[in-house]
């Protein structure tokens, strides 16, 4: 993400720079195009969309950014860190530095006025649609800041987003661009913010949401996650079994 790191606190997505503006409004724009996509897309594209969405939501967002960048529950090899962190930027999710600092701040201040995305204190709209303007304590991501590649991604986030999104659109056209990148990115953010940040934290408590599994997969057991962050959250786990299979634990 293109922003200067502050010593104590980082306005993770708060300085009104072009990177945050583009990545935030890209999500709005892609969601607004859903009716046009539905009218024009084929059955193959709908099936492909869900498969790519699963990769975006359950692998890049949940397994990598959440369970590794924020909680270190597994140990991906360096080559895989580079690939998945690049996908995280492409998918408008940010870098392991910004995402890790943001989420660790949430765990440290959960459901208080200092929580960067408490629906009680910040409101639903802010939590769901203004996620790139939340605050985070940069000190909580010092381990991720040591990686030069992650810092490079942060400096070049805007260029990466523009080149990959415009390039893919020019290469494959509207329907496949929406299928392979635009909608997986926008829907990952929408359902993650709604199903992980907002709904489980209502009524002054944290709840599991197993009925949301088709949308947020491993993140459906949010209460269990807050009790103790771990790699495998339930017997329905898919993504968390991949590191076990390859012995990346």
Residue share in β-strands: under 5%
Number of strand elements: 0
Shape: globular
> What Rg is obtained from the alpha carbons, in whole angstroms?
17 Å
Structural class: mainly alpha
Number of helices: 14
Uncertain residue ranges: 1-16
Instruction: Give the N-to-C terminal Cα separation.
Output: 28 Å
Write the element-wise H/E pattern from the N-terminal end onward.
Answer: HHHHHHHHHHHHHH
Mean pLDDT: 90
Q: What is the percent of helical residues? A: 55-70%
Largest sheet: none
Number of domains: 1
What's the topology here?
Layout: H1 18-32, H2 34-40, H3 43-70, H4 78-90, H5 96-108, H6 119-122, H7 124-129, H8 142-145, H9 148-155, H10 157-172, H11 174-198, H12 213-216, H13 222-227, H14 241-245
Helix pairs in contact: 1-11, 3-4, 3-5, 3-11, 10-11
Question: Which short descriptors sum up this protein?
Answer:
single chain; 249 residues; mainly alpha
Summarize the structure in words.
The protein is mainly α and 249 residues long. It has one domain (18-245). 62% of the residues lie in helices and 0% in strands. It contains 14 helices and no strands. It has helices at 18-32, 34-40, 43-70, 78-90, 96-108, 119-122, 124-129, 142-145, 148-155, 157-172, 174-198, 213-216, 222-227, 241-245. The longest helix has 28 residues, at 43-70. It is globular and about 45 Å long. Mean pLDDT is 90; it is low at 1-16.
């Amino acid at each position: 993400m293109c922003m200067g790191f502050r010593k104590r606190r980082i306005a993770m997505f708060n300085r009104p720079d072009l990177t945050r503006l583009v990545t935030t409004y890209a999500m709005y724009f892609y969601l607004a195009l859903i009716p046009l996509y539905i009218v024009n897309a084929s059955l193959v594209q709908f099936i492909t969309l869900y498969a790519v969405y699963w990769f975006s939501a359950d692998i890049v967002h949940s397994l990598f950014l959440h369970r590794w960048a924020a909680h270190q529950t597994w140990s991906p090899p360096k080559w895989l860190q580079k690939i998945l962190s690049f996908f995280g930027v492409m998918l408008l999710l940010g870098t392991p530095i910004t995402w890790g600092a943001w989420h660790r701040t949430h765990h440290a201040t959960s459901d208080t006025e200092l929580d960067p995305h408490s629906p009680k204190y910040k409101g639903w709209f802010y939590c769901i649609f203004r996620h790139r303007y939340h605050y985070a304590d940069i000190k909580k991501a010092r381990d991720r800041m040591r990686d030069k590649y992650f810092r490079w991604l942060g400096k070049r986030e805007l260029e990466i987003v523009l080149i990959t999104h415009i390039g893919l659109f020019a290469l494959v056209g509207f329907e496949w661009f929406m299928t392979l990148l635009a909608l997986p990115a926008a829907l990952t953010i929408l359902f993650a913010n709604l199903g992980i940040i907002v709904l489980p934290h209502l009524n002054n408590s944290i709840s599991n949401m197993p009925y949301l599994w088709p949308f947020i997969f491993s993140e459906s057991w949010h209460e269990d996650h807050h009790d103790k962050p771990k790699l495998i959250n339930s017997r329905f786990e898919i993504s968390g079994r991949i590191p076990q299979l390859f012995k990346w634990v």
